[in-house]
Amino acid sequence: MTDETMSSGYARRVGERLRLVRKQKRLSLQAVEGTSEQEFKASVLGAYERGERSISVPRLQRLAEFYNVPVDQLLPRDVNGALTAMGSSSAAGSVRTADGDAAAREANGRVTIDLTRLESVQAPEKDLLRRYLGMIQVQRQDFNGRVLTIRAEDVRAIGCLFDTTADGMRHRLDDLSLRVDA
């Protein structure tokens, strides 16, 4: 395999990651262009996503900042060509929405957190919550940025961080207006 062939294959896989994250953010190419005040032109971003054009490291870093995701999440998982959980099955399957069966989530201890509200919270818990929830997003490859459903174990772990029970943490999330369908 030539360097050029390997490079174009890698650019294509980077493009797949760029497209996946953009779609999880529910943004069109035109929306990215408009929201970024034309910093990221739709035609150029489309060429990156199709692997027709390689993105530079500074541009990749800037795009990660724009999408509000860690820069490594815009890179393929395996540089040797074996794609692992990059397609729609794992990443799209982990996208959480505010609608659905709230009673079932409550019964199994899950909590859905409004990530957009978290940004405006003025409480001492904010930074630690953001870091913990960010870690979960990276693990799940879930960057929709609106809501995140966490498991009962996560609620307990967050409660421990704040020296309270899982129920106490649920109540605190309610007090902060962060719980969806509470």
| DSSP strand count | 3
- Which stretches are poorly predicted, pLDDT < 50 over at least 5 residues? 79-106
Strand order of the largest sheet: 2-1-3
Shape: elongated
Description:
- With 182 residues, the chain is mainly alpha-helical.
- It has two domains: 91 residues, Orthogonal Bundle (434 Repressor (Amino-terminal Domain)), CATH 1.10.260.40; 86 residues, Orthogonal Bundle (Arc Repressor Mutant, subunit A), CATH 1.10.10.
- It has a three-stranded antiparallel sheet.
- Helix 2 crosses helix 3.
Short description:
Helices cover 54% and strands 5% of the residues. The chain has helices spanning 3-24, 29-35, 42-50, 57-67, 88-91, 102-107, 115-118, 126-140, 152-161, 166-175; strands spanning 111-114, 147-150, 179-180.
Descriptive labels:
182 residues, mainly alpha, 434 Repressor (Amino-terminal Domain), Arc Repressor Mutant, subunit A
Topology diagram in text:
Blueprint: H1 3-24, H2 29-35, H3 42-50, H4 57-67, H5 88-91, H6 102-107, E1 111-114, H7 115-118, H8 126-140, E2 147-150, H9 152-161, H10 166-175, E3 179-180
Antiparallel strand pairs: 1-2, 1-3
Helix pairs in contact: 1-3, 2-3, 9-10
